[in-house]
Amino acid sequence: QVQLQESGPGLVKPSQTLSLTCTVSGGSITTPHFYWSWVRQPPGKGREWMGAIAFDGDTYYSESLKSRASISRDTSKNQFSLQLHSVTPEDTAVYYCNAESLWGQGTQVTVSS
Q1: How far apart are CA 107 and CA 37, in angstroms?
Q2: Going by C-beta distance under 8 Å and a sequence separation of 6 or more, which residues neighbour residue 76?
């Protein structure tokens, strides 16, 4: 059974970089044709797809975030990560990692001084 678990700081200051990691267990992030995504949900709003890293390492980003977001992976640890630069309070959200119908439990990130 594949499981995803997000980790990272819950509080980030404005203008800093938000860094999150998703640890995948029970399956490999290099499994062909799987795409590993980051999705967020700001308070009172719907979920927003941020970007993904494919099984082959290719990355994809939403147009609105591609100038600030970076997704990478560590295949030796079976993890993929998100960095979001120059955060503002509008980046406050629950952040999820996702692949197909699989979701992590989500992690709350608050941007505040």
Answers
A1: 14
A2: none
Structure tokens at 1: 């059974």
Measured distance CA(82)–CA(97) in Å, rounded: 9
Q: What six digits make up the tokens of 57?
A: 């390492």
Q: Is 19:81 a contact under the CB 8 Å cutoff?
A: yes
Chain centroid, CA 77 distance in Å: 16
At 59-83, the pLDDT tens digits run 999 999 999 999 999 999 999 999 9
* Low-confidence residues in the chain, pLDDT < 50: none
Contact between 77 and 91 (Cβ < 8 Å): no
Task: Please name the residues in contact with 75: beta carbons below 8 A apart, sequence gap of 6 or more.
Answer: 28, 29, 30
Amino acid type, 23: T
Pairing of strands 107-111, 11-12: parallel
Pairing state between β 35-41 and 48-54: antiparallel
| Phi, psi dihedral angles at 86 (to 5 degrees) | 50, 50
